Amino acid sequence: MSDAVADRNLLVGMLALQLDFVSREQFVAASAVWSRQRETPLAEIFSQQGALTGEESRLLASLVDAHLARHQGDAAASLAALDVTGATRNAMSAAGLADWAETIAQGPATYDPHATGVPLAYDSDATTGTHGDATDVPSPYSETVAQSSTPSRRDVEVRNVVDGNVPLSTPAAVRYSVLKMFSRGGLGMVSLARDVELNREVALKEILAKHADSDEARQRFLVEAEITGSLEHPGVVPVYGLGQYADGRPFYAMRFIRGDNMQVAIDQHFRGQPGAAGAERELQFRQLLGRFVDVCNAIEYAHNRCVLHRDLKPGNIMLGKYGETLVVDWGLAKVIGPEVGPTDTVELPVRPLAAEHSTATQMGLIVGTPAYMSPEQAMGQIDALGPATDIYSLGATLFYLITGEAPFARSDRRTLLEDVRAGRFESPRSIRPSIPRPLEAICTKAMAREVRDRYLTARDLADDIERYLADEPVSAYAEPWRARAWRWMKRRRALVMSTVAALLVTAAALALGLVWSQAAQRREAALRTQAERNLDKARQAVDDYFTNVSEDTLLNQPGMQTLRMNLLSFAQKYYEEFLAENEDNAALRDELAAAEFNLGRILQNIGDKEAATGHFTTAVRLAEAAYAANPAVPQQVLLANAVNALGGALMATGQVAEAREQFARATSLRQELASEEPANQEYQRKLANSLMNQGVAELASGDENADAAIEYFEAAQKVRRDALNDADNFAQQVDLGKGFNNLARLYRDVGNATAALAAVQDADGAFRRAMEIDPRSLDTQENLAQNTLLWGELLAAGNDHAAAEPKLQAASDALATLHEENPAVIDYEDLLLTATVRLAQSQLAIGKLDAAAAHAAEATLVLRDIVAEVPDDLFFREDLAIALAVQGECAARAGDTEAARPMLAEALELLRAIEGESPSAREFADRLATDYANVLEYAPTE
How far, in Å, CA of 139 to CA of 135, rounded? Predict the structure, then answer.
């Protein structure tokens, strides 16, 4: 092989290593293979071993080409420009690449920043690498690793404590030799490794390089290792040792499980073997249920050791080839006090030492996988979680097992979490009608929205599954007498005649019951007659109750939303019963229309958009009939309200054209009312709302309708200003503020920055006045924070970052307070993330590098979790890319190109993946690609 080809392979490897595309272990492993198969390009070996994705390979090839072009295609000159530590050269030698190491040794180890030409990676002190001391990595293929009397610093410096606190069990890091990467998660990477002491394959989990310098991440990693190692149960993967490298990065070794996870096994059962016989498929299904019982037993053991898993799902259950069932990935596990655990604890509780030095999970932070988490977990009630949250997740896992589908499967994270919190999922039998009812009942009991309605322990859940498998009655399902009788007959065939006699007795009892039932019906009829006499009074009382609950500001304050929803559910139940009992009563048409309208509003409040649309549609039909029969003002008001509400519901479900029609009709009805009674403030306010709604619908119909939208918005604001004869009218001030905010956004979108800034300032004045009138209103606090955020964004868009920064800081502070006090409101978290990222961008622009990096890093931590939960949401992926880019640029400006490179590379990769769907991402990616090249060559000037 020519020297030029070898040099290019070396350049590929060194750039991949320096840019953190591959770890040192992956680099050494691939290099060792290449040393024996030099006809295979190193990049291809990286891909074969799973170290590089296709996108990373293409990006790396582009960077290699760009680097070669900078040095006129001379690979040797490119290599000479690299700043390579001695540790890396030693690692290459250990892999049998002495000729490569010699080639690199000819290049300079440090550089003069004033010399001609700027080095690829400038290090002013020429000392340490990214994680502390530069360290050597033993080759996975070295025959002398276990016998070495003087291991490298990484190998030998395995201390007895991590961070001075946590005792370790591993005698030496040299014991484990990495063979290949197996999987990568949010915090750590798992590799297949060899235990050279016992000559066995193990799974070696190491913290990812990007988290290596985070004390909090290290503590989380150690807590996971200690908890997993403390749970000595056949259903928990055993840990063989815990240690750390010389640079302080922790690792732990555990059993390597050969097999698939439960999700793969379930998918194969439902979709992988269509030709399998019915009996064979039934056997597979029962075997999976048996594995599920094993999982329940493992979780019961963990709960008795006072440990919650908090991320149970089919993908975190490994099914070994030899009957093993193991619960894995305890990264989100939490140790709880015995007072919130089971009462029959017989094992000593787990007390990981690393947890004593870790920070508590912030209240309001949503941890886990949304499709499998409990409602209380989705509400961010971290400190209130107990064993019941894992029992819910077991139920969700059982749901997947019996249906082949996750219980919650929305692409939109917000809607998915709303469904989880509301306990809104399809019944298993609606997905697969063949599911036995007892099995469905077990699943739905485990997934009950209220903790008190679930199984008390995981063992109770397992017992019911075992009863089902044994063809015994289960506690979750009250079997009909026919099913019980059939089971009884099968087991006592000799007593069939006795059974017949028993059935005759039962028939007699039923006949007697029928007589009693008829008497009860007569009593019920008398009671109904009496109730109808008081119908108007009762209905008015409920209407007043609903209005008070839905509009009461106190009930919408921190900690009160759950009570508010429960109170609304009482009104919902009344309206549903009223409608069911009177649906054909023409004399009550007005009342039925009002009830349908109020029920739609309740369902809208709790997030059930589709059901709300149906009730509003019915309300419009009934209100039309009532108005036709009696065209009076009250009937017209009700019809206008129902039509406007239907338009809003249609907009919320994406039916824009239909919404436009309803809003236009509502405007016409309300215009008549406002013209007939110009002094009526409520009529004027609602007319303005309908005009504004028409503008929103026009805008949603396409950019070409922007002019029409502006006309509607301005007309709405004129009505509001003309009608504002009382500066202390809270509703009018809020509406005025919302109108100006909408105008500001619209002016911005059509390019009129001056008008947008004027409108956002008007909105600020209206919202602040509303806050003075009622400072408790959460909606107004959110409106003011959103408007301040928009103000900052407008200033930043005009490159006035000095003025933008205080606005964005104020918005971020206000939203942080709202989020902390209302962790279940996902809108607050989303807005806070946006404000934090925009603040970081402006701080970067005005040179506040430390503040910008801190805010960007704060946002990155949360955005990574959200992107992992909802990978298809472009908004969050783009914001994550921006946050990473800000951190990278801050590091580059500070002269830390080693830290800058991986963050900028990841940002660019994220943007390139979505640039086809997001023009702004494409534009930002092109700009970042240029900055990326500059950062690679960046050196600070003195």
Answer: 13
Query: Residue 219's closest CA among 883, 247, 227?
Result: 227
Angle subtended at Cα 456 by Cα 455 and Cα 458, rounded to the nearest 5 degrees: 75
Q: Mark residue 259 as left, alpha or beta (left: phi above 0; alpha: psi -120 to 50; beta: remaining).
A: left
User: What dihedral angle (degrees, nearest 10) is formed by the CA atoms of 869, 873, 879, 883?
Assistant: 30
For residue 139, give both structure tokens. Answer: 């080759």
As a residue count, the chain comes to: 942
Q: 532: which residues sit within 8 A by CB, 6+ positions away?
A: none
| Residue 848 CA: distances (Å) to CA of 791, 842, 853, 890 | 20, 9, 9, 9
CATH architecture entry for 260-479: Orthogonal Bundle (1.10)
Among the listed residues 643, 640, 639, 644, the one whose alpha carbon sits nearest the alpha carbon of residue 627: 639
Question: Do 310 and 303 contact (CB within 8 A), yes or no?
Answer: no
What token pair was written down for 617?
């549609």
Confidence of residue 136 (pLDDT cuts 50, 70, 90): very low
Two tokens at 837? 């990222």
CB atoms within 10 A of CB 415: 15
Superfamily for domain range 154-256: Phosphorylase Kinase; domain 1 (3.30.200.20)
Q: Please report the pLDDT score of residue 519 as a whole number.
A: 56
Q: Element (H or E) spanning 598, and its range?
A: helix 589-605
Q: Are strands 239-244 and 188-195 parallel, antiparallel or unpaired?
A: unpaired
pTM of the shown model? 0.51
**Shortest CA distance to 247 belongs to which of 133, 117, 393?**
133
Residue pointed to by tokens 């999700």: 263
389-408 average pLDDT score: 95
Q: Where are the domains of the chain?
A: 3-105, 154-256, 260-479, 491-533
H, E, C per residue of 355-400? HHHCCCCCCCCCCCCHHHCCHHHHCCCHHHCCHHHHHHHHHHHHHH
Residues 813, 767: contact at Cβ < 8 Å?
A: no
Report how far apart the first and last C-alpha atoms of the chain are (Å, whole number).
Answer: 44
What confidence tens digit (pLDDT) does each residue in 303-320 have?
Answer: 999 999 999 999 999 998
Largest pairwise CA distance in the chain:
107
**Distance (Å) of CA 718 to CA 322, 687, 704:** 75, 11, 24
Count of alpha carbons within 13 angstroms of residue 223, beta-carbon side: 25
DSSP letter, residue 129: B
Rounded CA-CA distance 127/718 in Å is 68
Task: Please list, in sequence order, all residues whose beta carbon lies within 8 angstroms of the beta carbon of residue 600, skipping any fewer than 6 positions away.
Answer: 612, 613, 614, 615, 616, 619, 645, 649
Name the β-bridge partners of 122.
Answer: none
Positive or negative: CA dihedral 932, 933, 936, 939:
negative
CB 302 within 8 A of CB 235: no
Beta-carbon contacts of residue 830 (< 8 Å; ≥ 6 apart): 414
326: closest CA among 225, 224, 237, 228? Answer: 237
pLDDT at 183: 74
